[in-house]
Amino acid sequence: MSNIPETLRYSETHEWVEDLGNGRYRIGITDHAQQLLGDLVYVEAPDAGKAVRAAEVCGVLESVKAAADLYSPMSGKVLEGNASLADNPQYLNEDPYRKGWIMVLEAETSAYAELMDAAAYAKISEA
Amino acid sequence: MTQRTALYDWHVAHGARMVDFAGWQMPLHYGSQLAEHVAARESSGFFDVSHMRPLDVTGPDARQLLRYALANDVIKLDTREGKALYSTILQDDGGIIDDLIVYRRGPNAYRIVLNAAGAEADTAHFQALVAAQNWQVTLRQRPDLGILAVQGPQARTLVAKFLDWPDLMDLEPFTALERADFFVGRTGYTGEDGVEIITLNQHLPMLVEGLLAAGVQPVGLAARDSLRLEAGLNLYGQDMDRSVSPYASNLTWTVDLRDASRDFMGREALAAERSRGIGSRLLGIALRDGIPRHGYVLENDAGAVCGVVTSGIFSPSLQSGIALARVDAAVEPGSVLQLRIRGTLKKALVVKPPFLRQGTATFSFPEGY
Predict the structure, then answer these.
(1) Which of B32, B37, B291 sits opposite A67 (nearest CB)?
(2) Which residue of B32, B56, B129, B351 sits 20 to 30 Å from the alpha carbon of A72, by its own alpha carbon?
(3) Domain ranges in chain A?
(4) What ipTM score was computed for the predicted complex, to two decimals?
């Protein structure tokens, strides 16, 4: 059973999005996603200033055994990345919704509105 | 229909993430692959490897069958009961059908442990050889047996104590002791000291409960893979298959050519390969930056492709990317190649496996790497 906070929104590619206000959104992967991936050892996310597109690959998440694509849940511009993940990729496993955040995007409010709420995400992640 | 080992319910009850592996439902991990890896390296871990299949080979011609079917020579086992040998089974063209461990249990009595994926086909292969030669051999599959590997620096001590077999402490590597329902070999797939226990399925739950209480941790297939790769041990189907010979798979040491009169399957093809020159070989690579994965391509300084990764991981013990790679025969350990990772080139140091021996790296990155 995975943890799905009510206050966040979710994509079909298993990212969470937190509304920080003023068109800024913090992004990470869900508890369900980190469970599927196993122990993460390397994260490669887009640099600040880079444009990303919804549902497109923007980086990579590597566990001991496998590399998985990182998708962006919405289109926008990267404002900031989580520099602490370079030395602490285990934050994605230990604390996926807080210390394990991946990047902050500048994006359209309408894109945020299209994302799933916790109840909808619970359905697809536990199906 | 996927099969379940005798410990299936135990794994589920202990939080294992179960996956289908070679037709078996097996534990991938029990929460953290990394913690399980560390347990096996630093203290002890147990692994349900009951998907691997014991096959008992007996009869007046058992030794003759194995001297013909295996590239290594079971004559090495004649000195003592309980001795074990690692070998490949080859096709006539020298390609590897499978790899296995064979134990001698007595005159013309052997126990083989086969990989899950190949067990049925391997048994049929042996049966066909027996029929063709009209040998007197009985092949007995043992679905009533399961296997528990217990690995790590503390493993043998804890098993000796739990089974109350003090003589396990004197057991030599690649040798087995057999008593009552338990067959315990000092073998493994992690590069650590330890044993593999073959016993009746019904004894397995009691065994894991006892070992857990003694402080041995359960370890899943994910850590089994990172442990074996650090130890430089091949995985059949990934690092070798029917298209490559032992020479191209870092297994030259397992081909025994000493008895010139032994005409084993694949021998002629291996001799021919030797005389025309080995085309490729299996070596290791290590990266300070980047993680090598199966299928990634190696290039030399001139930008020419000179190898491909067969198994790659992030090494939990060494904290760097490591891989086995099939490279051109000219590639030498110590040289630096370029590995293409998602379009960018990363330096890859060529290493002769293993990567890790008794907890220490077998290589170091050169100055200016």
Answers:
(1) B291
(2) B32
(3) 9-117
(4) 0.73
What is the CATH code for A9-117?
Answer: 2.40.50.100
CB contact under 8 A, B291 and A62: yes
For B110-136, the pLDDT digits (tens) are 999 999 999 999 999 999 999 999 999
Q: Name chain A contacts of B291, Cβ cutoff 8 Å.
A: 41-42, 62, 67
Q: Is the dihedral of CA A30, A31, A32, A36 positive or negative?
A: positive
The CA angle A93-A99-A105, to the nearest 5 degrees, is 110
Contact B222 A67 (CB under 8 A): no
Structure pTM? 0.91
Task: Verify whether the Cβ–Cβ distance A62 to B37 is below 8 Å.
Answer: no
Which stretch of DSSP H or E encloses residue B306?
Answer: strand B305-315
Chain A positions with Cβ closer than 8 Å to B: 35, 38-39, 41-42, 60, 62-67, 90, 93
Interstrand relation of A103-106 and A76-81 (parallel, antiparallel or unpaired): antiparallel
- DSSP strand pairing (B45-48 vs B217-218): parallel
| CA–CA separation, B86 and B190 (whole Å) | 15
pLDDT digits (tens, 9 = 90+) for B17-75: 999 999 999 999 999 999 999 999 999 999 999 999 999 999 999 999 999 999 999 99
Residues composing chain B: 369
Give CA–CA dist B259/B257, Å, rounded: 6
